[in-house]
Amino acid sequence: MYNENNTVSHTSETDSEGGTRTIEEKGTNKEIIFTEENGANVPATQTVINPKVEGVIVTAQGANDANIKANIVSAVAAVTGVATHKVQVFSIN
Questions:
Q1: Quick one: which of 2, 28, 23 has its CA closest to 13?
Q2: More exposed terminus of the chain, fewer Cβ within 10 Å: N or C?
Q3: pLDDT one-digit tens code per residue, 10-22
Q4: Whole-number Cα distances in Å, 78 to 11, 70, 75, 83, 89
């Protein structure tokens, strides 16, 4: 993990003959974040934990038709990797 500081500076100059010059300066300062563990400085790290999908519930118009319901179950199972018996489809009235 880092502390990052970005700066942008714009300067416009006009000379005596009417010419102009524009200068843009960009700077970046990046510092590693440290934490203390057992008296030693250790770089801080970040972990992203994605939730595990256990089941899916879908509500849809037309889901009372068996073919549409089966297509929805198949599509959801294909996209999520959840077993078809863990996908429930309900019709919206």
A1: 23
A2: C
A3: 999 988 888 899 9
A4: 55, 12, 5, 9, 15
As a whole number of angstroms, the distance between CA 80 and CA 29 comes to: 40
Distance CA(59)–CA(62), nearest Å, equals: 9
14, 23 Cβ separation under 8 angstroms:
no
CB distance 1 to 42 below 8 Å: no
Q: What is the pLDDT of residue 1?
A: 87
Beta pairing partners, 25: 9
Q: What is the tally of helices (H) and strands (E) in the chain? A: 1, 6
